[in-house]
Amino acid sequence: MSDNLVCIKDFEVHAHEVLSRNALDYYRSGAGQEETLIQNNRAFSRYKIRPRCLRNVANRDLSTTILGEKVSMPIGIAPTAMQRMAHPDGECANARAAQALGTVFTLSTIATSSIEEVTKSAPNVLKWFQLYIYKDRKVTTSLVRRAEQAGFRALVLTVDAPMFGLRLADIKNKFTLPPHLKLANFDGTKSTDINKNNEEGSGLNAYVNSLFDASVTWEDIEWLKSISTLPIVLKGILTAQDAIMGVEAGAAGIWVSNHGARQIDGTPASIEALPEIVKAVGNKVEIYLDGGIRDGTDVFKALAMGARMVFMGRPALWGLAHSGEEGVKKILTIIKTEFDYALAISGCANISDIKPSMVVHESYYSRL
Ligand SMILES: Cc1cc2nc3c(=O)[nH]c(=O)nc-3n(C[C@H](O)[C@H](O)[C@H](O)COP(=O)(O)O)c2cc1C
């Protein structure tokens, strides 16, 4: 394929050509029959933009703030595990790209670059740390301390993964982490530790299910608050009930997500879950969204529907697979430009000009 890649879809097609099956399927796939995976992006097309005209959009400002810190655009990087399968610089390259674009980078607990490596590599990026709670709470406490020391600004607690979902492609492939890589936040964890249980399916699932604590409850958020003063963002909320409980538990942000459709098939697309959560807690905490963001118009729709910030997972992996830091910069620049066009042509000069009335569900028109 030529290297004339002009949209995120082009980078996805390119990644399909260059990644190994083991890595591509791990990055690409969703849980079960992948219904939700398809819907995550498709659902955006069911919402329609109602542009306004003649509103002087000559000078535009795409910047916003998240948890009080300025970012150049309302688009950040979601945590995805094991990025060195896509490029030798993995998470470090991804963080440097976010730094260059002036946006937030979220590092996964199960990264192939460590907390300290990422900090050294991208000293000025605004960075958040994604947390899984281990059965051995000392492991989690130590990760929190290291993230605090390294200047991470928030803890993103993933609440939708008591176990990892059944990703059939990984089971078929007997997914393994390539032998030269390791889970870098755990010095002792070599790929051999993850791969040793993969005779029956995904080695990663067996590994995770043996270490992560499936008995975690809302009380553990209390515990997390007792060990750190960093703001806590709850990632993976899909219902108003859980959003309300999250706010009561002291979360500073609610991250609406179905984990890129990787946990349980049959959930709504995350954009479909957004309205009830905005209605329930939108005036109390910041609301973020990920899942299927592939175009600047998706960003516009999510913001009009009440998200303060959106995050992308796979697109950054496709950027990494293309050309590391440069590839992720390209991805971010493409979607920033698309969002700028969406903003201008809808009659908005800045983020606060985006109003809820500017996006409606398609049923609005079929009723006419
Ligand atoms: C390959 C891959 C690995 C992921 N690893 C993590 C992880 O370690 N922690 C986490 O909270 N979410 C993880 N996620 C979910 C993402 O943070 C995010 O919710 C999702 O990718 C957003 O959907 P998108 O890929 O359509 O942008 C992962 C997603 C993918 C695709």
TL;DR of this structure?
With 368 residues, this protein is α/β, with parallel strands linked by helices.
Strand tally, please? 12
Poorly predicted regions: none
According to CATH, what is the topology?
A: TIM Barrel
Mean pLDDT: 95
Question: What global shape is seen?
Answer: globular
List SSEs in N-to-C order. Answer: HHHEEEEHEHEHEHHHHEHEHEHEHEH
**The CATH C-level class name:** Alpha Beta
Which helices and strands occur, and which strands form pairs?
Blueprint: H1 8-18, H2 21-28, H3 35-42, E1 47-49, E2 64-66, E3 69-71, E4 75-77, H4 90-101, E5 104-107, H5 115-121, E6 126-131, H6 137-149, E7 155-158, H7 168-173, H8 191-195, H9 203-211, H10 219-227, E8 232-237, H11 240-248, E9 253-256, H12 270-281, E10 286-290, H13 296-304, E11 309-312, H14 314-345, E12 359-361, H15 363-366
Parallel strand pairs: 4-11, 5-6, 6-7, 7-8, 8-9, 9-10, 10-11
Antiparallel strand pairs: 1-12, 2-3
The protein binds flavin mononucleotide.
Flavin mononucleotide binds at residues 26-27, 40, 78-81, 108, 110, 130, 158, 235, 257, 259-260, 262, 290-293, 312-314.
If you had to describe this structure to a student in words, what would you say it looks like?
The chain is of the alpha/beta class and 368 residues long. It has a single domain (8-51, 62-361), classed as Alpha-Beta Barrel (TIM Barrel), CATH 3.20.20.70. The chain is built from 15 helices and 12 strands. The strands form 3 sheets. An 8-stranded parallel β-sheet has the order 4-11-10-9-8-7-6-5. Strands 1-12 form a two-stranded antiparallel sheet. It has a two-stranded antiparallel ribbon with strand order 2-3. Strand 2 and strand 3 form a beta hairpin. The longest helix has 32 residues, at 314-345. It is globular. The chain starts with 7 loop residues before the first helix and ends with a helix. The mean pLDDT is 95. It binds flavin mononucleotide. The site of flavin mononucleotide (FMN) has 23 residues, from helix 2.
